[in-house]
Amino acid sequence: MRLYHRGAAFCKKMRGKLSKMSEKRNIRDHKRRLLAAKYELRRKLYKAFCKDPDLPSDMRDKHRYKLSKLPRKSSFVRVRNRCIFTGRPRGVVEFFRISRIVFRGLASRGPLMGIKKSSW
Description:
Belongs to the universal ribosomal protein uS14 family. The chain is mostly helical. It is built from 4 helices and 2 strands; from the N terminus they run αααββα.
């Protein structure tokens, strides 16, 4: 429990530095998402042609080559879910796009709609 409290206090104390770092990460992540969305249809089409056994092998090889020439960062596999507040890549609650540490703090204070800290 001490680790959570210290983490939240550290975030408040170092808000300026963390916001710059997280902002940079989030901008990079946003650009990567846009690039992945741009090439999504083309990538799926090339993959479908590569996997189709009815097509001749030279045509499949041609589409495999085109697939390899697409930008690497345009793949959705390379997109990482990050916290929108801290930029933390692990422990992200996907529905809210915030990390578990920030989620816990917001849930206890109450600004998250429909979320209440449970106690029994």
